[in-house]
Design brief:
With 333 residues, the chain is mostly helical. It has 17 helices and 2 strands.
């Protein structure tokens, strides 16, 4: 595995430093506007940084298949994915009434809900302008389908809030749509830029999809067991919002009767979770092994992701993608 004395995230950023610099320049150009409020919010969210994981997948997929990851086409595709992702975050934070992301106030907390929703719409429209600029109908078809599916996933998650009979299958359907779909698209876009054969494109898109599932499950565990300072958000946000993520679903299956009753009581009263209640729910999750079981599921998905690219030619990009499949589950624990 790759190791240069830094964390996986920092090391990968170093590997893709030129590509990420080009991405940031493209994002700044794309988000420029004569409307002051749009420019202010755009600058605010771009300067917040973030993992840039989805555009990194575009760059790595392109590299793995022999394409020039610094080309204008690949940078445009990476920027499009990041614009779509950022738009979803702006809308999510309004829906979830979040006030902290990446260690600082959310855009809606800083500028208001209405402005955040409208600027999210602006980012979506800019993303489609960049797509059109690539001149590739395949890109438009792929990303229009992905954005539609992401929206469906967000609505499914909204409908699932507080739904105590939510199953693991229901949960997987939500995260496949709202999270894994854009990962999948990122992998496919790198392959499209490389003009890869259908089999290679399927391998990259399936790798990315599985990676997205692993990341989301691990994120849901981090909401209970993570380090708040590293995560840049408060622990227990999902619980406070009434979200039945995989740890909660497993606890409602495996916990003691007393434990299950406690979880049901807390989930039934979102936005009113006190520190003591969070601690009690954490004890239930730990006692019945819900957090460990969830991490095992994430590990299963990450290993499946790695298998999808096993037959790709050996390269630095392939090594990084294999490293990411491990990082997906191990980060911040």
């Amino acid at each position: 595995m790759i190791s240069i004395g830094l964390s996986t995230s920092d090391s990968l950023r170093h590997h893709l430093r030129d590509e990420l610099s080009a991405l940031d320049c493209q994002l700044k150009r794309t988000l420029d506007s004569e409307v002051v409020l749009i420019r202010s919010i755009s600058d605010y969210i771009v300067s917040a940084g973030g993992k840039r994981l989805r555009p990194m997948l575009v760059f790595l997929a392109a590299q793995a298949l022999g394409a020039d990851s610094k080309s204008a086409l690949v940078v445009d595709l990476a920027a499009t994915v990041e614009l779509i992702h950022t738009a979803t975050l702006l809308h999510d934070d309004v829906v979830d009434e979040s006030d902290l992301r990446r260690g600082r106030a959310t855009a809606n907390a800083e500028f208001g809900n209405a402005a955040s929703v409208l600027v999210g719409d602006f980012l979506y429209s800019r993303a489609f302008q960049v797509m059109v600029g690539t001149g590739k109908m395949r890109v438009l078809a792929l990303l229009s389908e992905a954005t539609n599916r992401i929206a469906e996933g967000e609505v499914m998650q909204l409908m699932a809030l507080g739904k105590l009979d939510l199953t693991e299958a229901d949960y997987m359907q939500v995260i496949e749509a709202k999270t894994a779909k854009l990962f999948e698209a990122a992998g496919a876009l790198g392959a499209i830029a490389a003009e890869a054969a259908p089999q290679a494109e399927r391998a990259l898109s399936e790798y990315a999809r599985r990676l997205g599932v692993a990341f989301q499950i691990a994120d849901d565990v981090l909401d209970y067991r993570g380090d708040a300072s590293s995560l840049g958000k408060s622990l227990g946000d999902d619980l406070a919002e009434g979200k039945l993520t995989l740890p909660i679903i497993i606890a409602l299956q495996r916990g003691s009767e007393r434990g299950k009753a406690l979880v049901r009581e807390v989930i039934a009263k979102p936005h009113a979770v006190e520190r003591e209640q969070f601690t009690q729910v954490m004890a239930v999750l730990e006692d019945c092994g819900a957090l460990d079981a969830s991490l095992q599921r994430a590990q299963h998905e990450a290993q499946a992701a790695a298998r999808e690219i096993a037959n790709l030619p050996d390269s630095e990009a392939k090594k990084w993608m294999l490293e990411l499949s491990e990082y997906a589950v191990k980060r911040n624990f």
